[in-house]
Amino acid sequence: MECLESLRSVTYPDFKIFVVDNGSGRDDVLHLRNWQSGGTLIENDTNLGFSQRRHPACARQS
Length: 62
Hints:
Blueprint: H1 2-6, E1 18-22, H2 26-34, E2 40-44, H3 50-60
Parallel strand pairs: 1-2
């Protein structure tokens, strides 16, 4: 969560935040859902591995 909180201080004028949850525990997902960032949370039900979990965020950034 510290990493996500640090994004609040970014001053770059045009950026989007995508957080991909890769099948983590229920409590972790609840923390991410409650984080008020204006970002997009993409939830995977299972651990898909590094490249597969990154793909949904890359597809949505356009």
